[in-house]
Amino acid sequence: MNDVLTVSHLTKRYGRVHALRDLTLTVGRGQIYGFLGPNGAGKTTAIRAMLGLTRPNSGTVRLFGEPLHRAALARVGALVEAPSAYPHLTGRENLEVTRRLRGADARELPEVLALVGLTDAADRPVRGYSLGMRGRLSIAAALLGRPEFLLLDEPTNGLDPQGIREVRDLIRALPERGLTVMLSSHLLAEIEQVATHVGIVADGTTRFEGTLADLRAQAHPELRVTTDQPSEAAVHLAQLGHAARVDGADVVLPDPRVSADVNEALVRAGHRVSRLAATTHTLEELFLNLVRAPEARAC
């Protein structure tokens, strides 16, 4: 079975409010899956449902091809919402508390400390840790029990740039040890630097799922023409058979290859053309377009 997580048509309501609406996604073995969406999109509710912490109104969650049950969940490590540690205890002592609660083998402590790069700081009180070190300690706790699937909810939230880099580098290395990772974020730039696959969610429903290359493939090039009378120019081009629309001072056409013909047609008609440029949407523009309400999305 190559799918570690399969979420099918998940719906969760709180009174009249829909936190999740028919959410569907799949995480394959060995992936770093970025679960991306704006704040309030339903990411944390979805993650809680994936871990059996909240019961959906409808839909199913399957882990390793099996229904959600204790044996399947034992193969999952998770970091949900704001992690905390006892500041007066050392890093090792904090992990020992988690190890006992999970019933993990004591021999795992030095393993996870080494994996997250905290061996040298293991016996220092956590109050003296940097934000990045605390983030790595939280991931170390999630790794106890030797999980096959790691589910991280906003693991870089609140970290400084150095801490974000430390956690990012750690996450990148986890698939080399046989782990599959799913991490949520509202920051496209963060997901773009670490994920192999991405699922974009907004208003509790999946808007996109695939690789980053799949997402970039949706960035169709356009021709933007800046002219003194864009509305009149768009009408003229439409009469000549071009699919033209107005965007501010520009006329936008879907095919940059017609630039010479468009320029000639507009000049012959008396329009002053100051710029022609082939443009492609950035990933940020694609993301923002996907998470807009359907009626507000760009064509």
Automatic annotation (TrEMBL):
Which Gene3D superfamilies does its entry note?
Answer: P-loop containing nucleotide triphosphate hydrolases
Q: What name appears for this protein in its UniProt entry?
A: ABC transporter related protein
One Pfam family for this entry, by name? ABC_tran
SMART domains xrefs = AAA
From the Swiss-Prot or TrEMBL record, what is one GO molecular function term? ATP hydrolysis activity
Q: Which domain of life is it from?
A: Bacteria
Keywords (A to Z) from UniProt: ATP-binding, Nucleotide-binding, Transport
